[in-house]
Amino acid sequence: MQSQSSSPNVPDALKRYFEQAHIALALAGVGADNPLLLVNEPFHKLTGYTAPEVVGRNCRLLQGDAENPEAREKIHTFLEGDGVNAVRTTILNVRKDGRPFVNLLYMSKLRALSGEVRFLFASQFDVSRSQPELLAAYDAELSRTLSRLRPSLAESGIVLEGSLKAIANTVATVAQAKLTLADLDGTGFP
């Protein structure tokens, strides 16, 4: 089991959900650099990082030396904007072994019934070398994940904000990821 929590405030139902999920998931705290609280086995398989290596750290460690200006701007807008409930963007990440991959990152805010943001929920998917049908399957699984997660969170008094926005053209997303990797090959990036 890869999931590990550094906070007793993470509801047990959410911990169990992470353990059973088939897609890479991460949960971060709010404030003070948004430390990771929980990751699952698919996260480990995707990134190479185990829960003890990342819990307590900010997920930006996956960016390595990559600049990611557009993705960072979208993420900052999401984190700072109370009206922005979810974000979906591609971002260049680096596995523990140094191999780069283009991550299709989805993030959503988890709020208490009072409206206070309690956690940041994230899912990751490698679009670097995937086929369009794999991306469509991931989208379907993420949609199912969000649908199944909502009742578990509701039992704990937490609301999942935002919804999965369908990718208008998955082929274009994969093509952009391949261009990013091709650019990396020309720069000597590990």
Automatic annotation (TrEMBL):
<keyword id="KW-0285">Flavoprotein</keyword>
<keyword id="KW-0157">Chromophore</keyword>
<dbReference type="InterPro" id="IPR035965">
    <property type="entry name" value="PAS-like_dom_sf"/>
</dbReference>
<keyword id="KW-0288">FMN</keyword>
<dbReference type="Pfam" id="PF13426">
    <property type="entry name" value="PAS_9"/>
</dbReference>
<protein>
    <recommendedName>
        <fullName>PAS domain-containing protein</fullName>
    </recommendedName>
</protein>
<feature type="domain" description="PAS">
    <location>
        <begin position="10"/>
        <end position="82"/>
    </location>
</feature>
<dbReference type="InterPro" id="IPR000014">
    <property type="entry name" value="PAS"/>
</dbReference>
